[in-house]
Design a protein that fits this description.
This protein is mainly beta. It contains 1 helix and 3 strands. The protein has one domain. The chain binds zinc ion.
Length: 72
């Protein structure tokens, strides 16, 4: 994750984990885990897929790709 807010540049944030049921083709439901990085200055939220973030963490020197933010 980037250490500073994309919107206001603040480096203060907290992280929450959310679990979201996802329906794939074939009607199987799995639980997707996401990290929310919430700026403590402006409330801007970045959302990361945990399975990708955790996977990327295991590869040294690989840049973490971000998930686009949900529009609101
Ligand atoms: Zn911010």
């Amino acid at each position: 994750m980037n250490s500073s807010c994309l919107k206001c540049g603040s480096s203060e944030y907290y992280v929450k984990t959310i679990v979201c049921p996802e329906k794939n083709i074939g009607l199987k439901i799995k639980l997707g885990v996401y990290y929310l990085k919430i700026c403590s200055e402006c409330g801007f939220v970045e959302m990361y897929a945990a399975e990708i973030l955790d996977d990327e963490k295991n590869k040294k020197g690989v840049k973490i790709e971000k998930i686009p933010n949900p529009s609101y």
